[in-house]
Write a structure and sequence with these properties.
Keywords: Cell cycle, Cell division. Pfam families: MinE. The longest helix is centred in the first third of the chain and has 20 residues. The chain has 2 helices and 2 strands. It has about 80 residues and is an alpha+beta fold.
């Protein structure tokens, strides 16, 4: 440690923590493979479908699939037998 080290501008620890958190969040989003809104979208779809058809919570699947340069929203609903 030099005599004049105290004169150097030190990076704010809050700013460093914020930057690290942003990196972690970005990595989590990419590792999950889908946008943040998918779980909420799935729950809301399930609520709407339950108004008309009695389905299990696992009946609704929502995924994002890459189709060339585009992301395609893939929604699958498993209806109980006898209801269509």
């Amino acid at each position: 440690m030099g005599l004049f080290d105290f004169l150097k501008a030190k990076k704010n620890t809050a700013e460093t923590a914020k930057n690290r958190l942003q990196i972690i969040i970005a990595q989590e989003r990419t590792s999950r493979g889908g946008p943040d809104y998918l779980p909420l979208l799935r729950r809301e779809l399930l609520e709407v479908i339950k108004k008309y058809v009695n389905v299990d919570a696992d009946a609704v699947k929502v995924d994002v699939i890459k189709d060339g340069e585009h992301d395609v929203l893939d929604i699958s609903v498993a209806l109980p037998e006898g209801q269509s």
